[in-house]
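Thread: heme C complex, take 2
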Amino acid sequence: MRSTASYIRVISFLLIAYILIELTVESGEQSAFLTEPLTWLAMGMILLFAIAIEISLEAFRSILFRSLKPEAQERYLLAEKTRKEKQFQWFRNIYLKLVDSKPVEQEDEIILDHNYDGIKELDNNLPPWWVYGFYVTIVFGVIYMIRFHIYNDYTQAEEYETEVAEALIAIEEYKKTAKDLVDVNTVTLLTDAADISAGKAVFNTNCVACHKADGGGGIGPNLTDQYWILGGGIKNVFRTISEGGRDGKGMVAWKQTLKPAEMAQVASYVITLVGTTPAEPKEPQGEIWVDPDAPKEELQNEVPTEEIQETVSDSTAVVVNE
Ligand code: HEC
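Output below.
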């Protein structure tokens, strides 16, 4: 231990271990060190292990050294000394090349002959790392100017638009793989035949006992008419299925049993039942539901207002009787 090289060895050993752990431990998007606390233990063990190796190597070397004859020991020490001097030589060389500063001993060669209250100025060369960096910006600037100001490759606005379009596509892709992300705020009416038939399957397994296979209603209300107790439209229907009906009425919250995607599918299926004619329709309950987003005139053409009033009072009576 105790030499710079051994510290560097231990640290690089740890770095390699860190990278290997990140690559091999299954941890999704997060770092393995956040999801698997055991990895810290592993790193600790590896650190101890690396230090132990360094200590034993050092001990081994000193035993070997002591077993040498005096002349051999001297030769060894000399060899070590030159090796130490050459160590990191290439690194030092590169550093000196990049900075190109004069060593302190030669500074009087470049000192300028003015003197401000004892503060003197050295005429150093510009550090090459800086000069080359500057050349790179010039080259970059020329290429940039030709590409964007002469050939008008694309503008910032266009760049923004393509990126937004790409992001929208990515969101759509993501939604396809993550259907269960829907909730009452984001649910939309599904129209895919596959979704509707999946919804129908959910309905047949869970809902027919109370709503009948054709949605005509039994214990639960008729789902095929325009009248809704808890509101029509995909969002309200989804909410009713997810959160359940009013207390004590028998419609439970299905979010315990069904996945969000399944609730969206069955809600969409329920909407497709509206307007069909069931075998034994239950009398309407609730109110005619008007989509607040729909254009006004159409609604007035469909049902005269007095009629709505009548049926509403009718149906409230029915509910109370129940
Ligand atoms: C145990 C009987 C029962 C089962 C099973 C049942 N429901 Fe209901 N459902 C009801 C009752 C009762 C109501 C009325 C709730 C109220 O008045 O608050 C209702 C209301 C509804 C409503 C709202 C109707 C309106 O007029 O606002 C929808 C939509 C609905 N159910 C869909 C479903 C779906 C989908 C399933 C299957 C996942 C299902 N129900 C399963 C009994 C049931």
